[in-house]
Design brief:
Pfam families: FtsX (PF02687)
Order of helices and strands: HHHHHH
Number of helices: 6
Main location: membrane
GO cellular component, one term: plasma membrane
Number of strands: 0
Radius of gyration: 23 Å
Oligomer: single chain
Distance between the termini: 87 Å
Organism: Rhodanobacter thiooxydans
GO molecular function: transmembrane transporter activity
Largest sheet: none
C-alpha cells in the first residue's frame, strides 16, 4: 500500500478552523471570558487591598505582641485562598447552569458541550491561583505597615 508523500498531522486548532468546526461565536466568547477574568482580578486586587489595609490596627497589635510578618502574611494569604475556593465553587455552579443552557440550543455543537473532571479541577485551581496572585501585593503592603505608626493613630 502506497502512502502519500505529504503525510503530516495538523495542529488541532488549525484542523478545527480548516474544517470550520469552531464557530466564530465560541472564539468571541473565549475572548470575552478571558477579558472578564482580567477585570475580576483587578477588582479583586482593589478589594483585597482595601480589606487588608482596613485590618491595619489588628495587624499592628499582633505585630506589637510579637507576631512575625510571615505569620500575618500566611493568615492573609489563607483568607485569599478561601475566597478562591468559594469563587471556584460558585464558578463551577454557574458553569453547570451555562452548559445546561447551551445544550438546550439547536446548534450542532451544543450537544458536544460537557464538563469533564480535568476542566473542573482546572477551574478550581485557576480560581485559587488567581485569588492568591491578586492577594500577594495587598497582603505584602499590609504587612509592611510599621506597628508603632498605626498604634500611635489609635
Amino acid at each position: 500500500m502506497l502512502r502519500a508523500a505529504d503525510a503530516r498531522l495538523d495542529p488541532l486548532m488549525e484542523r478545527l478552523q480548516h474544517l470550520n468546526l469552531v464557530p466564530d461565536d465560541v472564539s468571541r466568547q473565549l475572548f470575552l471570558a478571558q477579558l472578564f477574568l482580567v477585570v475580576c482580578l483587578l477588582n479583586a486586587v482593589g478589594l483585597l487591598l482595601a480589606k487588608f489595609l482596613q485590618m491595619a490596627p489588628q495587624i499592628s497589635i499582633r505585630r506589637a505582641l510579637g507576631a512575625k510578618k510571615r505569620d500575618i502574611l500566611i493568615q492573609l494569604m489563607s483568607e485569599a485562598a478561601v475566597v478562591g475556593v468559594l469563587g471556584g465553587a460558585l464558578g463551577c455552579a454557574l458553569t453547570v447552569f451555562g452548559l445546561n443552557l447551551i445544550r438546550g440550543q439547536p446548534d450542532r455543537y451544543a450537544q458536544l458541550a460537557h464538563l469533564d473532571v480535568v476542566m473542573l479541577t482546572l477551574t478550581i485551581g485557576l480560581a485559587i491561583f488567581s485569588s492568591l496572585a491578586a492577594a500577594v501585593v495587598p497582603a505584602w503592603r499590609a504587612c509592611q505597615i510599621p506597628p508603632a505608626l498605626e498604634l500611635k493613630l489609635q
